[in-house]
Amino acid sequence: MPAAIPEPVETAVPGGAGHPRALVGVLAFCGVVVAVMQTLVVPLLPHIPQLTGATPAAASWLVTVTLLTGAICTPVLGRVGDMYGKRRVLLASLGVLVLGSVLCAVSSQIGVLIAGRALQGAALAVVPLGISIMRDELPPARVLSSVALMSSTLGIGAAVGLPIAALVIEHSDWHTMFWVSAALGLLDVVLVLGCVPESPLRSRGRFDVLGTLGLTVSLSCLLLAVTQGAGWGWASARTLGLLVAAVLTGLAWGAYELRCVSPMVDLRVSARPAVLLTNLAALLIGFAFYANSLATAQMVQEPRNTGYGLGASLVVSGLCLLPGGLSMVALSPVSARISAKHGPKVTLALAAALMAVGYVVRFFTSHQLWMIIAGATVVASGTAIGYSALPALVMRAVPAAETGAANGLNTLMRSVGQAFCSAAVAAVLTNVTFQAGGRTAPTLHAYLLVFLIAGAAALLALAVTLCLPGGRTPPPAGTVGQVRRPAPPARTALTQEDA
Q: What is the pTM of this model?
């Protein structure tokens, strides 16, 4: 077995790694902006048919297409960043986000909006790319806390995005929120150019085109079946056909990747218990997290004649999630300290247990607004600690040159968990109903069932976490190597000018 590949050596780069606070702040801000984009359109969905003339089924694609492109591009662009430069791919992802935002801002045609949302979803790769850059550029003492914050931006942005979008929709033209997102994306590009250096660390090999296509087809079939199955019918030929295609394509893709010299996903590394169980925990944590957001926003808006609803406005329902977002900001450094002292396995176990406790609180306190907010905040706090620990577990088990691809795969698993959660919540809330005030509404028991399912997912995540091996595992034999290359000439010229 070859010797463990060493961590990148810390070097001061003018305008970049020499200013770690600026580097961390810029990358975390990029992560928040991208996460906000994922949820920006959710409060607008009920109004899209009226605003665009589209059918409700077509409107739902504004969320589905973002999930699809984000799930596909996250591991792919992570791998591309490992091979050709993380900063370069980060800037490209942000550019795509700006382009998608502008498309949505200038049009009310549903086809253009779906295309714009597809481009916005591709920018989700910013988070694993940012984590990889932090690992390469920061001093070892700062890596855990910085990566914890970067990983938490997925939850922070989701919690902040809903109330912001609701405020814009109520008080301004709905295109405004896309213009704002375009402006924030441009600001991200400028900040990255000024504060983030290009990592000299590279992985060897050629880009795996066939592996990328196979992963794209398999993921597309799976996520389409999961997200559209409720509307098409779970036993329909279309849904079952997509599921079968996902399995068959996935098996063929896996067989090819095992034979490929430079695979898109190194399945031998991904199959190791330290990586496999971490990704499974990520899926379950993503499921449990998303149920909190979906159920809270809808539950408080239910009319009072349901007997449990509070009749809250769209803005109030979004603000209910804001304390959870603030707790994520506060707890990411706490999570890093726990991981540094006791290891990320203990941190993730604590997070899963806290999420389960949060759903117990939610199960018994669903009648008063402040108690709903308290329960949602407890779940969000567990999510913050868990999201902060996941990349630390991944980085302990993979070579430094594969951090982008490995964290991209882990982020993908969170997205898959959210997709399954969305389907499960929709199935429960549309089937466990009653008549209230002349309309069909979910019963209180429907929401309680959602909390039970989400709590069970958190407990499963706890069980999976406890099965994780302890300690640092060296890279296995046959792992794709790494090469430290000189920084690109353009970056050298830029830093000399800055100096």
A: 0.79
